[in-house]
Structures are given as C-alpha cells and as structure tokens.
Design brief:
about 45% helix; 4-stranded mixed β-sheet; 2 domains; alpha+beta; PH-domain like
Length: about 200
C-alpha cells in the first residue's frame, strides 16, 4: 500500500456522507455512455485494434497498387472509418434507442457516499429500489469531464454526473474518499481535458 493511500485511510470518513441527487434523463444517460465509450477506447485490446488498422492502411494500399487488390484496401478503409470516425455516433444512436426501455429512464437517483460504502436509491416512494455497493466491490473508477464511472466486475457500471456534486469542494472530498476507501487492487483513471 502506498504512503499516500495509508495517510488517506487515516483521514477517511471524517466528514458527513456525500449526498447526490439527479434524474437519469436522456442527456445524463448519453453523458454516461460517452464516458464509458471513452474509457473503453483506452483499453489495451481497443488500442491494439487501432494500431493494427493503422498499420494495415499502407500495407493494403501497396497491395492495391502493386497487385490490384482494391477490395482489400477498400475493406480496410471502411473498417478504419467505422473504428475512428463513426464508432461514437453509432454508439450514441444505439443508446438513444435503448434509453426509453431502461428501468432507470427518467427516474430520480439518490446516492449517499461514505466510508461504509455507496448507497443508491432509484425512484421515489413505495416503488423505489435500493442497493449498497461496498467499496471492495469496485474494480476501477474513471473520472471524465462529465462525471465518474464506478466499475464493478462483469461489465457493471454506475454513473455519478459531475453536475450532481455541490461544487469543487465536494468533488475534492469525493476524490479523497476514493483514494482512501478503494481497494488496493482497484485502478483510478482520469480522462478529463486537464489530463489529456
């Protein structure tokens, strides 16, 4: 365990729990999907695929000019366009189509985040659903311009929009809580403009 994380653990949870409230409307859902898409593009397998496509372009161009293998070259061009240009627009269109069918669509989300874990309530009244996420259940957290993704195993993700926080002071408290409470095996990533 690093010294910074040891120090943070000693000071963890001294303040009140962080309370967040927002509605999972379509704009918030698209922000979450864009952040998840951005995080996915940084994964090793996607980066390898990108380099393979880039390497294939001059090779197939040479084959097309040398042995008239134009179909191969055009196929690689089409794959590159899908991968580098149209991937997010297509993902966004799919997210828009699926949003209305989701059980969380247009429902209020209430989070209570403290040293004991993250409690979430979806909806209001008798139909509200509640769950608790222990800190040890998180395998990674990624910070993006629009918010945070909490990553759990088996491709389960939770979204905390930046707009739901009560300003920079509360954001900083949340970052400190992450540093203090995340398991040592969990990774923290930042994909904000300031980091790129």
């Amino acid at each position: 365990m690093s010294n910074d994380r040891r120090k943070s653990r000693r000071h963890a949870g001294k303040g009140a729990a962080i309370e967040l409230q927002y509605v999972m409307d379509e704009a918030t859902f698209l922000d979450a999907n864009h952040a998840l898409w951005q995080w996915g593009r940084r994964q090793k397998r996607i980066r390898v695929r990108s380099w393979i496509l880039l390497a294939a372009l001059p090779i197939t161009a040479f084959l097309a000019l040398r042995w008239d293998m134009w179909f191969t070259f055009l196929a690689v061009i089409a794959l590159a366009l899908l991968h580098f240009v149209f991937d997010w627009p297509l993902s966004r269109a799919f997210a828009r189509r699926t949003f209305a069918r989701l059980p969380i669509a247009n429902r209020p989300m209430h989070w209570r985040i403290g040293k004991d874990g993250l409690q979430v309530r979806i909806g209001e009244g008798e139909e509200a659903e509640e769950a608790t996420l222990p800190w040890k259940s998180l395998v990674a957290v990624s910070e993006h311009d629009a918010g945070f993704i909490l990553h759990q195993p088996h491709n389960v993700h939770h979204w905390l929009p930046r707009a739901a926080f009560g300003g920079e002071a509360q954001l900083q408290r949340f970052r400190q809580l992450l540093t203090a409470q995340l398991p040592d095996t969990a990774a923290m990533h930042r994909f904000t403009r300031a980091q790129n």
